[in-house]
Amino acid sequence: MKIALIQSAPKLNRSNLVEVSTMIDQYSDADVIVFPELALSGYLLQDKLFEDAWRVEELETLAHQSRQCDIVIGAALWDEGKVYNSALYFSKGELLHIHHKNHLPTYGMFEEGRYFAAGNEIRAFETPNGTAVMVVCEDLWRAETITAIAESDAEIVYVLASSPARDFQEEGIGIEAQWDALLKAAALLSHNYVIFVNRVGFEDGLGFWGGSRVVTPMGSIEYKMGLFEAEGLSVELNHHLQKLGRYIAKNF
């Protein structure tokens, strides 16, 4: 299974769709192409949110392109009169699944709860490339989320993020080490590959660190992208590792 991770730097306007479409064409030989949280919208939309948020019918371009490869992408999305911070999965010409971010950080530099509505479930769903589950950034910072992933029948986990850089230390960025712990816990407890795609770029003083990565079912980092640079990476997943992880969990 070939996965393309797109570590992009979204702008605070709707022009992101054009760039996303170009990247999909460039990496269309992948089975699944994965973009960050709010890749179609930018992060600090604030009062612009209700003007710039997307409606599903406006994303027909992505549905059409998903005939080439499956697409996982984040967007501010209108749904039944509310705007959500959402992860969308397109496949075979249609929108297959939507996950609305459950946990909206509203502390320190974060104000998501002032603007977005919150989702209320984490659900695995069938795709042509195995049963999947999607979560968005802060979702994974909750024990109940990792429990829900571990108890699901998911075979692959997609984590979309817009994580700002903070806690700079001599040995690196503290937030990166914290994310590593969460991603490895999710991988080990669910015995799945975890695909983490974090954005880069700057918005109103916030710098996003990137560092997108693939964590194996055994909890090791198999692929890791650079910090602060927009780039794409295609990787092949080794499903023998997933089978090994599940065997060990069952028998030891």
Report, as a whole number of angstroms, the end-to-end distance.
Answer: 28 Å
Q: Can you tell me the overall shape?
A: globular
The helix fraction, in percent, is 25-40%
Stretches with pLDDT under 50, minimum 5 residues: none
Radius of gyration: 17 Å
**Side-by-side strand order of the widest sheet:** 5-4-3-2-1-15
Structural class: alpha/beta
Q: Give the rounded overall mean pLDDT.
A: 94
Query: How much β-strand is present in the residues?
Result: 25-35%
What would your notes on this structure say?
- The protein starts with a strand and ends with a helix.
- The longest helix is centred in the last third of the chain and has 17 residues, at 174-190.
- The chain is built from seven helices and 15 strands.
- With 252 residues, the chain is α/β, with parallel strands linked by helices.
- The chain is globular.
- A six-stranded mixed beta sheet has the order 5-4-3-2-1-15. A five-stranded mixed beta sheet has the order 6-7-10-13-14, with helices on one face. The protein has a two-stranded antiparallel ribbon with strand order 8-9.
- The mean pLDDT is 94.
- Helix 5 runs parallel beside helix 6.
Short descriptors:
about 250 residues, alpha/beta, six-stranded mixed β-sheet, five-stranded mixed β-sheet, 15 strands, about 30% strand
Outline:
This protein is an alpha/beta fold.
Present the secondary structure layout:
Blueprint: E1 2-7, H1 16-26, E2 32-34, H2 49-52, H3 60-65, E3 70-79, E4 82-91, E5 94-100, H4 112-115, E6 132-136, H5 143-151, E7 156-161, E8 168-169, E9 172-173, H6 174-190, E10 193-198, E11 200-203, E12 206-209, E13 213-215, E14 221-224, E15 231-236, H7 239-251
Parallel strand pairs: 1-2, 2-3, 6-7, 7-10
Antiparallel strand pairs: 1-15, 3-4, 4-5, 8-9, 10-13, 11-12, 13-14
